Amino acid sequence: MQFTLKAIQEAQMKYTGPDFPKLIREFKAMGMVTNTYNLSNGQIQYVSNKGEHIDIKSEITVGIIGEIYDEAAALAALKNNQTGKTDFITFCKEIAEAGVYKWTSDLEIMTCSYYDHKENTVIVEMIPSA
Known about the structure:
Layout: H1 5-14, H2 20-30, E1 32-38, E2 43-48, E3 53-57, H3 71-82, H4 88-97, E4 100-106, E5 111-116, E6 121-126
Antiparallel strand pairs: 1-2, 1-4, 2-3, 4-5, 5-6
Helix pairs in contact: 1-2, 3-4
């Protein structure tokens, strides 16, 4: 599997919230080592194990990012998406309202870290294996 925008988009269309570990498995098969999603400006960056970068602009707009991080709201947004109660767009809006402006998935150590607007790491969760 090649590290291309087309391959990334095809994987994202196959897997949603509850299937996140399967999406990560496909990303790893492409050679991806990190991906960062910035909700404040819509920039998404994918990085391969060969140092290749794919940078795109998301079509999702979230509106206002909460100024103060709300842990309960952020955790609820994550849980709702991971259990399939919300779609990705709703998740993005809800987690932004809770004060999260970006997240980074590290596919080497299998974590997903979420950050507030001051660059504080507010949530780190382990990515389960698929």
